[in-house]
Every structure is written in C-alpha cells, then in structure tokens.
UniProtKB/TrEMBL annotation:
Upper classification of the organism: Bacteria, Bacillati, Bacillota, Bacilli, Bacillales
Organism annotation: Jeotgalibacillus malaysiensis
CDD domains associated with the record: GDPD_TtGDE_like
GO MF annotation, one: phosphoric diester hydrolase activity
Biological process (GO), any one: lipid metabolic process
Any Pfam family: GDPD
Record's protein name: GP-PDE domain-containing protein
SUPFAM superfamilies in the record: PLC-like phosphodiesterases
Top-level taxon of the source organism: Bacteria
PROSITE patterns in the cross-refs: GP_PDE
Domain GP-PDE residues, every copy: 2-234
Amino acid sequence: MSKVFAHRGSSIKYPENTMLAFKKAEKTGCYGIELDLHMSRDGYQIVIHDETVNRTTNGRGYIKDLTLRELKKFSIKRKWYRNEKIPTLDDVLEWAMTTNLIINIELKNDKIYYEGQEEAVVQKVAEYGLGDRVIYSTFNHKSVKKLKQLTDSEVAALYSKKGTNPLLLVKSTGADAIHANHRVMTESLMKDCQQHGIPVRLYTLNKPPLIKKWIDAGLAGVITDDPELAENILKEKQ
C-alpha cells in the first residue's frame, strides 16, 4: 500500500518547511513528512529548500554565509504567516519525538556541498534516537555513498533527469530506495525496481489523476504538497 509523505509539510496551504506546515501535515494522518536541509555558517542544520533565504523570508543572503542567530531574525513572508521562523533540524526532531511520523530528510548539498554535513545530520538524528524513523535522500550521489557508510537508516537516491536508469543508479550508489520526479518515472521502471526490492517514491504528486494513477500502480511513496488530498484518495482506494 502506498504511503503519503507531506512534501515540505502541508505546503499547499501553509508556508513550506515550517513547523506550522509539519504540524498541520501530521493532522492529515499522513505517513511521513519531507524536509530540506542546508548548513549555516556556524554549522547548524537549517530547514529550508533554497540555497538562499530570499524567496521564502524577508531576509537576503546564502544560508552558508549566515549564522543561526542571523537566520532566526528573519520571518517567513507568505501571506499572513509572518510570525513563522526558519526551523532547525533540532526543532523538527524534538517535535517528531512526540509523533509517529517517518521523517524524510533531504540534504540539499548538490549545488553547494557542505563539508561534514552527512556526519552532522546522522549524529543529530542519533541524539534523538530517531534513526529507525528517518529516510535520508539527496541529489548528490557521492553523498548517498557517504551516508550509506555512516548509517543503517534508509538512504534514497534522488534524480530528476530523463534517461536515468534507477536500477543502475541504485547499483552505483548503494542506495536503498529511489526518489524521483514523477515526470521521469515510468511504471515499467518502477516495477523493475520493485522486483529488486527497491522502493520507489515520487514527487511532487498533487493532482488527483496522478495520485490515483500511481497508487493503482503500486507506488511505495506519494510525496505531495497536499497530504490531505492524497490521504483521502488513499482511503477511497481502501
């Protein structure tokens, strides 16, 4: 049965990658949440999608150039949610301990490589005792290999390029799972992965026909901005 992951939280209604979006996602009954991680100048794991704060906050600058103290001064600039702040991984994991959610942590280290991020994130997850409830993912396939050396948690290889063979990607990286853009996946490729015991999760499935199509095809994970919609479709299927 397919599992629903809230992409950056319940981000269709609430500001992405915020504690509000994650808490609202949990209320939908979804299986897990997905979040993105960059690293601040002083080594903190910052939950935000872009390399800069420019798009989602009232601040300016690259995460790598800003300290946690500076980042916490910024506010989310989506509609009326201006009291929301950028969370840290600590903020999310501390809250996650009060839930049963699976946490998909995407390391955003493909455009800017953060030296030592893999070790820091794995250590942080271990501090909270959540290793059995975490899935790591990244577009940086060297980082996939590194994570596989550091943790027993599931590690997924992300990709979005057409022509990529997911099974070959698994073989070359040692990944446990595939997370792919739905536009580059076919049912045949997914079945090949499943026959080799490799779960496939697709992003970002937001429209009912797409969600229904992939649930019917036996997709392992629906990664969506609208977990409430996906959960309702899943219940109808059951």
